[in-house]
Design goal:
Two copies of one chain form a homodimer.
Chain A (H helix, E strand, L loop, with lengths): L11 E7 L4 E10 L8 E6 L14 E6 L8 H10 L10 E9 L1 H5 L2 H11 L2 H7 L5 E6 L11 E7 L4 H12 L7 E11 L1
Antiparallel strand pairs in A: 1-3, 1-4, 2-3, 2-8, 5-7, 5-8, 6-7
Chain lengths: 195, 195
């Protein structure tokens, strides 16, 4: 079966930490592993550019990730997610969080069925996220296969309204208490507010 | 659980087509989609370098891919694969093939359970490959999340002895007859012989 080359959809995103930017850092916490230098603001730059860009002049650091196909979600879960979730960029979502995470070698050595077992059967990762929809919007970016030297495996970007901050705290606390999180060996939680 | 940063294992490979190189092209066939310019030889370059390199001077084209975690294989299958398979670089494996493949948007829109259903329950991809071990050694490289502009999603590199060429032809024929292959919209099969 041949099919025309699909219209390119942007999948690559850069998160640039510097002194200025749309999203002001309100709090940053390193939960496990090495921290990142403190920054005042984060800019999110989308672009289907060549991978692994140089850090822009004046930036303290940048992270990049790529959105990709589903790795664990099954059809019934996907249907429920799509029905409940809302996109990024909502007018009242003036709060955000960027949480880069790395998982250890034991995680990556597992086979697909073993990882799904830990992620959902034991940890209910998908089900927990579902409970916070549509209040907490998210976009998952993969880093591990974008750059073999990437300092994180995933970057998740979340957006929510200020009054849902406690809800968001509950979500990340619930995930951090799961068996899946015993495989996380680096995690930084940076909270942001739209300027 | 924290763990030390693992020793970097090279995961990034470049396949450079030019006039000279260890592997001489003996045959090249475009099965579906756009072809690649004809080349005389292919060089395989390993290196945990920054992703997305420029095409070297004098090269006709290059492809690059990254080895990654298992996407479909389950533990029982993995155990059997590991017990049967042999590595690349065997002295008598003087034949090789490089087969870059792209899958269409319908493939990537499926959820994990749907893709596994097509790949193994319907197409027996893992079971078919198992039947040709240890004669046919292989290494799978992913491209899709390495570079959003990558012309292929996967590059598989195979090595085998000259007397197993018919066996290798059987293997690729069997895979191309599966439901999984109805999602393939670009495939080129380049056969090689070690100089």
């Amino acid at each position: 079966m041949t099919s025309p080359t699909p219209t390119p959809v942007n999948r690559l995103f850069r998160f640039i930490a510097s002194d200025t930017g749309l999203w002001q850092v309100t709090k940053a916490q390193c939960l496990v592993g090495e921290s990142l230098p403190a920054a005042t603001a984060i800019s999110v730059v989308a672009g289907n550019i060549q991978a692994v860009q140089e850090v822009p002049a004046g930036a303290m650091w940048q992270l990049q990730g790529i959105t990709s196909n589903e790795r664990y979600v099954q059809r019934a879960e996907k249907t429920e997610l799509v029905a409940k979730q809302e996109g990024l960029g909502r007018a009242d979502s003036s709060c955000a969080a960027i949480i880069p995470v790395r998982k250890n070698a034991a995680w990556w050595a597992m086979t697909q069925d073993e990882r799904r077992e830990v992620l959902e059967a034991q940890s209910h990762h998908i089900a927990i996220g579902m409970r916070y929809l549509p209040a907490i919007a998210r976009r998952l970016h993969h880093c591990r296969d974008l750059d073999p030297n990437a300092p994180f495996d995933f970057i998740t970007w979340f957006e929510f309204a200020p009054q849902d901050t406690t809800l968001f705290d509950d979500l990340v606390s619930a995930l951090r208490a799961t068996p899946e999180w015993t495989f996380v060996d680096r995690e930084i939680d940076i909270r942001l507010s739209r300027a």
